[in-house]
Write a structure and sequence with these properties.
Number of domains: 1
Largest sheet: none
Distance between the termini: 32 Å
Structural class: mainly alpha
Helix content: over 70%
Order of helices and strands: HHH
Strand content: under 5%
Radius of gyration: 17 Å
Length: about 80
């Protein structure tokens, strides 16, 4: 597995974790727990954003790592 693939998989995993934190914040009735889950969700969003930026840098450094959607676009 390449670094690009590992970063991409990590982003997917973190998005799942972030969604779980949001869900937990809505499901709990404890205000402190809600705040903790919302805070964890926001921090996770920041990490995801940083990794997405890194993924774009990897794509620029190595064009063969462009996402499949971009690679499959028809050429005119």
């Amino acid at each position: 597995m390449t670094v690009y693939q590992q970063v991409n998989q990590t982003i997917a995993d973190l998005k799942s974790v972030q969604a779980s934190f949001e869900l937990f914040s809505y499901q709990t009735k404890d205000p402190e727990a809600q705040k903790a889950f919302k805070n964890a969700s926001e921090r996770t969003k920041g990490i995801i954003s940083a990794l997405e930026t890194r993924l774009l840098q990897i794509e620029k450094e190595e064009p063969s790592y462009k996402t499949l959607g971009e690679q499959k676009q028809p050429k005119n």
